[in-house]
Design goal:
By secondary structure, the protein is an alpha/beta fold. It is built from four helices and eight strands; from the N terminus they run E-H-E-E-E-E-H-E-H-E-H-E. 20% of the residues lie in helices and 21% in strands.
Length: 208
């Protein structure tokens, strides 16, 4: 697969708290980093996303009496999974994993920084209305095909790819450079959703 100047690699949330030993570790999360670094060498355009939550974030189970991680609650924008406290602003857990090559990135997009709403997608908060500004950045730079890698496949990667598709971009998920949490069948649901939308998944061998 030939990478062009209108392609962009979007590296989703490769942060300490999503890797082994982190507060919300994705199994094998750090194992995808060599693949991401290798793929990144093919791209002129790279965007990193970074979960960036305040301590009192609405998605943290610790902020809801008598609730536990992975319980579900209803908020104004719909159902919300409650998570362990993770990627708190300024914490070591919120930092990018030290093995990730961040130097070539042209943009670091922080998300989930509003207390009262969670944000899986790199494009919208979980109300599906409040934009992060990423779509405007990509359009202004005339970037058209978006390749997604990172964590977690079945949450932030999934919703970022879906929103990219809905916004009119061509979205591709490099599944070999992702890992999933698999909460209540969420990996299978992600495969079904991506297929139904016509969003392809490819391996890293497509780039070499």
């Amino acid at each position: 697969m030939r990478v062009s100047s209108t392609d962009v690699l979007i590296v989703v949330d490769v942060q300490n708290d999503f890797c082994t030993g982190g507060a919300l570790a994705v199994p094998g999360g750090e194992k995808i980093i060599p693949a991401i670094n290798r793929i990144a060498g093919k791209f002129e355009n790279i965007v990193l996303t970074q979960d960036w939550h305040p301590e009192d974030h609405v998605s943290f189970a610790s902020n809801h009496p008598h609730k536990r991680p992975y319980d579900m609650i209803e908020l104004s924008y719909g159902s919300q999974v409650l998570w362990p406290d993770h990627c708190v602003q300024g914490s070591a857990g919120a930092e990018f994993h030290r093995a990730l090559e961040t130097t070539p990135a042209s943009l670091v997009l922080r998300k989930g920084n509003h207390r009262d709403i969670d944000s899986y997608s790199a494009f919208y908060e979980n109300d599906h209305k409040t934009p992060t500004g990423l779509a405007g950045y990509l359009r202004e730079r005339e970037l058209k095909t978006l390749f997604f890698v990172g964590l977690a496949f079945d949450f932030c990667v999934r919703y970022s790819a879906e929103d990219a598709h809905q916004a009119g971009f061509e979205a591709v998920v490099i599944e070999e450079a992702c890992r999933g949490l698999d909460v209540d069948g969420s990996v299978a649901a992600t495969h079904h959703s991506l297929k139904s939308l016509g969003i392809p998944t490819v391996g890293i061998e497509a780039f070499f």
